[in-house]
Amino acid sequence: METKRNAQQIREEVSLVELLSRLGHQPARRSGKDLFYLSMLRKENTPSLSVNDQLDVWFDHGGANLSGIKGGNVIDFALAYWHPTSFQEVLNRINDIMSLPTKGFSCDPARQKRSRQKATPVANYTIQEIKELGSNSSITQYIKSRGIWEQAKGKIKEVHYRIAEGPKKGKTYFSAGWQNENGGWELRNKIGIFEFKACLGRKGISFYKGSSEKLSLFEGFLDFLSWRKDQPTAPDSVIVLNSVNLLDTAMEKASSFPAINVYFDRDKAGESAFLLLQKKLPQVQDCSDCYLNYKDYNEMLLARKPPRLPWEEENVYNKILATYRR
In what helix (H) or strand (E) does residue 187 lie, and over which residues does it extend? Predict the structure, then answer.
């Protein structure tokens, strides 16, 4: 009987193209190293879900789905595909499906003849320059639009990079980015109406050492900085997952803390991740009630009305005149 793979093994060993094939989904066309599928996460007529079969990463260019997940690795896809199934159940389903004999579409016949290699997305990019915030107006505007400009200084950088191969070879891009504990760069930007998310290099959590007694745990970096805006002097150590499928890694590092405050998204994925965390670490506390009625901490922060200056008050002139009438 085959031993079930854990999350790390699934990321390293399971081919997303093969999983899609076993689920009954075949690519409609190829463009360079990307295979394009009719999205199985929502209804569409033009194939817009792309899979890089060498890096085993995917991105849905066509719009949002119920899970809110638009791209990532094989586990991110499974969380979107089987939404709102729990994280552990998703792993179980992948294990069950991938234990079947290989069949169906294979974009590279030679791939079946060798053991699967670990994806290394950094090989497709060359980082040109890492700069402090402030030199690129688009990145500045994006960070300010998230309400965390002051908190981002020193933690978020401007990452300028060039595509090393493929159809976009030679093109240069830039994004806001922060480094994870594996040396990879987690990227965020806004392109038109879409939020751009990617990682240059190896995925990993981000850890900031503080108090050894108290830990605060976040799904995303922007939520962490939003919390920091409200808690500028909090001594907590901080872990940012950067991806919900890195929960296992986070749990290992978090296990030594006697008190853990958790600020996950108020959605099915966040709830499932918290329940799994709670089974392993009973000292965790769900703090998402502090942004009740909002999906996450940053959404609550942006919903706040900024304090008015004296001259911006409603009917300010009538109020001043009233003092003279007395």
Answer: strand 185-191
How many angstroms separate the CA atoms of 190 and 179, rounded?
A: 19
- Collect the ranges in the chain with pLDDT lower than 50: 1-3, 100-123, 311
In tens, the pLDDT along 220-238 reads 999 999 999 999 999 999 9
Residue 186 backbone class (left: φ over 0; alpha: ψ -120 to 50; beta: rest): beta
Whole-angstrom distance, CA of residue 192 vs CA of residue 215: 36
Residue 322: what pLDDT? 61
Beta bridge partners of 194: 191
Residues 6+ apart with CB under 8 A from 107: 17, 27, 30, 35, 53
Report the C-alpha gap between 274 and 241 in whole angstroms.
12
> Which pLDDT belongs to residue 98?
81
Pick the closest to residue 63 from 228, 169, 220, 195 (CA basis). 195
Classify burial at 268, counting beta carbons within 10 Å of its beta carbon; exposed 0-12, middle 13-18, buried 19 or more: middle
Domains observed in the chain: 7-113 (3.90.580.10), 121-200 (no CATH), 206-303 (3.40.1360.10)
Hey, what amino acid is at 15? S
* Per-residue pLDDT tens digits for 313-326: 556 556 656 666 55
